[in-house]
Write a structure and sequence with these properties.
- The two termini are 25 Å apart.
- It contains ten helices and 13 strands.
- The protein has a single domain, classed as Vaccinia Virus protein VP39 (Rossmann fold), CATH 3.40.50.150.
- The protein is elongated and about 80 Å long.
- Helix 1 runs antiparallel to helix 10 and helix 6 packs across helix 9.
- It is of the alpha/beta class.
- This is Three-Cys-motif partner protein TcmP.
- InterPro entries: Tcm_partner.
Length: 277
């Protein structure tokens, strides 16, 4: 069972399900098109915590619950943890018999690339993907594989809990961290350091003193950068639903990338009511 992360966890699920319903309403009128739902970190199907006396349904099961105006033609759930994979598979087999749902134990990165290949070979398919990763586990090359395809991608970006923690204040970032930043952002370390740090030189009695400073509003700057990076792959990127913890610190940016202008408007409309959280 997965853990409940607070009000923003519920809001995130509501955003995805709300968008999926609007998406299926539109796609039900496109009689030529088949629909694919892809979840790269599907979990066990249930979420529980001390705040709930009973476990609640996770995003995967909520998406499977949608029957009107139509269900998806294919559901593809990826889960790397064997226990979670078996739990989700069992729930689908018992409660969602007849739906074309597949639960695969695999790494999300490889399956994103497989999905891109599938969409390239099956032009009548349109996909809605939800990527809710564990940390910075989604590599940029996996996102890059989706370029030019008929896919709407919702992705949770660990701006505060992930990227910011690797950007040390003094710029002395360990080599493994730099490699992770390069893989996650799809940028060279030189580009990363230039974007997130500034150099200041001060004239003193003892000569010039140079200091390196981490940029201000760094987490928002990370969110802006990821939006810019997505725009090199997709035509449009939604506003972000910014998730904060109890101390009001930013943890994640949640956004949708698409090649469809109408989809962009729907995504922003779904996100907007959540800004108050």
């Amino acid at each position: 069972m997965n853990e409940f992360g607070g009000n923003w966890t519920e809001a995130k699920m509501e955003i995805v399900v709300g968008y999926a319903k609007a998406y299926l309403t539109i796609m039900s009128k496109q009689t030529w098109a088949k629909t694919l739902y892809f979840d790269g970190f599907a979990g066990s199907g249930l979420i529980g915590s001390s705040e709930h006396t009973e476990a609640i349904k996770g995003t995967a099961l909520r998406i499977l619950d949608i029957d009107q105006p139509k269900p998806f033609d294919i559901y593809y759930f990826v889960e790397k943890d064997e226990k979670n994979k078996l739990s989700l598979q069992s729930k689908i087999e018992s409660d969602y018999f007849g739906k074309n749902a597949h639960v695969i134990k695999a790494d999300c990165n490889s399956k994103l690339i497989d999905m891109a290949r599938y969409l390239n070979n099956n032009k009548n398919y349109r996909a809605l993907a939800f990527i809710d990763p564990y940390g910075m586990t989604v590599n940029w090359e996996s996102i890059e594989a989706l370029k030019g395809l008929g896919i709407d991608l919702w992705i949770l970006v660990p701006t505060g809990l992930g990227v910011n923690r690797l950007l040390k204040n003094d710029q002395n970032i360990p080599e493994p961290w730099l490699k992770k930043l390069e893989q996650f952002l799809g940028l060279s370390r030189e580009e990363i350091l230039k974007y997130f740090y500034s150099t200041t030189t001060i004239n003193t009695l003892f000569g010039d003193q140079t200091s390196v400073n981490k940029e201000k509003s760094i987490i928002q700057k990370i969110g802006n950068l990821y939006t810019q990076r997505l725009k090199t792959i997709f035509e449009f990127v939604s506003e972000s639903f910014v998730m904060r913890n109890s101390t009001n610190s930013i943890m994640y940016h949640f956004m949708m990338a698409t090649n469809n202008k109408n989809a962009l408007k729907i995504a922003n409309d779904v996100i907007k009511p959540k800004y108050r959280l």
